[in-house]
Design a protein that fits this description.
It is found in: Cell membrane. It comes from Butyricicoccus porcorum. Belongs to the major facilitator superfamily. Pfam families: MFS_1. This is Major facilitator superfamily (MFS) profile domain-containing protein. There is one protein chain. With 392 residues, the protein is mainly alpha-helical. It has a single domain, classed as Growth Hormone, Chain: A (Up-down Bundle), CATH 1.20.1250.20. 80% of the residues lie in helices and 0% in strands. The chain is built from 16 helices and no strands. The longest helix has 35 residues. The chain starts with 10 loop residues before the first helix and ends with a helix.
Length: 392
């Protein structure tokens, strides 16, 4: 198995990895809860599909801006200060959404959730990659904790019923616990390349083919996952296939599949090469997404959604695991892995909302076929690139 295992790390490093797992759990909880609560938020505040799409785009813009800036900010302050400070912003955003339906405040609140997401992804993936030597198994395990939070989100929404504000309040409480746990972490210079102070920023990774292949994979995957994450409950309800309570259960089933898939990916990545796994996962995503779009009854839509979750599950961690240690060589690389995909994801979310206002949510979701095509092409090129390396 490539890289360092969790049991081989020091107690301090394990505590830091565990804190990242908690942060990813919280991120899965608040991101999916927003999507689960979106039909109720739309009804309470009277917002349109377009505003809903702009809210999702605002989140992606926050994610993108953080990817560009957070490493440079950390070089001037400290990784721990920025990690904790940005990490609490999502819960500030949830609090804002609880008190007002003003579109500008809602957009700002979603921007804060995106900043928090970007910070967690940037520092977390960078720290795990650096301390584990780009261990794809550990990266996929970290992603599994996101799926645990994502599975919990629709259940929290169901328990709270029509009171989505109560569900948000519970999530804010989880955020406070996460923040208090994070106060005890110790991040040393050798843990994260963001702590390096060389006086210059090296963008040499832009000249590598593997960076652009990984960026294309991550961009298309994040756009598909983010759109499904944000619109799935609305899609089931507005398509007339399921009531909101049933749609929440289906969302839980999807994220249960993602959870199983991420644990499976963590295990499979110790036995198969990243490019083989990416090829299979990309084909599976294309088939299952097509099944989801072509189905008009509950059973095939459910099967397709679960299949989509299984095949999407390990995409992010496996792509990073096949990036040839770029994050260890270049401090800004993880930021660009966030920023560039963030552009595609932001445009996708906005496009879906705009199209849905004109021809319905099913038509809006069909826009994702563009991203599925990009995913398949990127996966094919990624496979060829690594296959040539293997032959040499």
């Amino acid at each position: 198995m490539k890289g360092k295992r969790l049991k081989d790390m020091s107690k301090r490093q394990r505590y830091l990895i565990y804190d990242f797992f908690i942060a990813y759990f919280a991120m899965g909880l608040y991101l999916i809860l927003i999507g689960s609560a979106l039909p109720s938020i739309k009804a309470d505040y009277g917002i349109s599909y377009r505003i809903g799409g702009l809210m999702m785009s605002a989140q992606q813009i926050g994610y993108l801006v953080t990817g560009v800036c957070v490493s440079m900010i950390a070089q001037r302050l400290s990784v721990k200060a920025v990690y904790l400070g940005f990490g609490i912003l999502a819960f500030v955003g949830l609090a804002l959404m609880m008190v007002t339906g003003n579109p500008f405040v809602l957009l700002f609140a979603m921007l804060l959730t995106g900043i928090c997401k970007g910070s967690t992804c940037n520092f977390g993936n960078q720290l795990v990659s650096t301390m584990s030597g780009s261990n794809a198994s550990l990266l996929n395990l970290a992603q599994a904790f996101f799926a645990v939070g994502a599975c919990a989100a629709p259940l929290v929404a169901m328990v709270c019923g029509t009171s989505w504000r109560l569900a948000f309040a519970i999530t804010i409480a989880v955020g406070i616990v996460m923040f208090l746990h994070g106060m005890r972490v110790e991040i040393r210079p050798e843990d994260s390349v963001s702590n390096e102070d060389s006086g210059t920023v090296d963008f040499g990774f832009f000249r590598t083919k593997i960076f652009w292949l990984c960026a294309a994979l991550i961009m298309s995957y994040l756009a598909i996952e983010g759109s499904v994450m944000g619109w799935l409950v609305t899609y089931f309800v507005d398509s007339g296939v399921a009531k909101e309570s049933t749609a929440q259960l289906l969302a839980t089933a999807l994220w249960g599949a993602l959870l199983v898939g991420r644990f499976a990916s963590a295990w499979l990545s110790t036995r198969f090469r990243p490019h083989h796994m990416i090829a299979v996962m990309s084909l599976g995503v294309a088939v299952c997404f097509t099944g989801l779009m072509m189905s008009h009854t509950l059973v095939p839509m459910t099967v397709s959604a679960i299949g989509l979750g299984l095949f999407m599950a390990g995409m992010y961690g496996t792509a990073l695991g096949g990036s040839e240690n770029l994050m260890e060589k270049y401090p800004m690389c993880m930021g660009m892995f966030i920023a560039i995909p963030g552009i595609g994801a932001a445009l996708t979310q906005s496009a879906i909302g705009t199209i849905a206002d004109h021809i319905g949510i099913r038509g809006g979701m069909c826009f994702l076929y563009v991203l599925v095509a990009v995913l398949l092409v990127a996966a094919a090129l990624f496979f060829v690139y690594h296959q040539k390396k293997t032959v040499k």
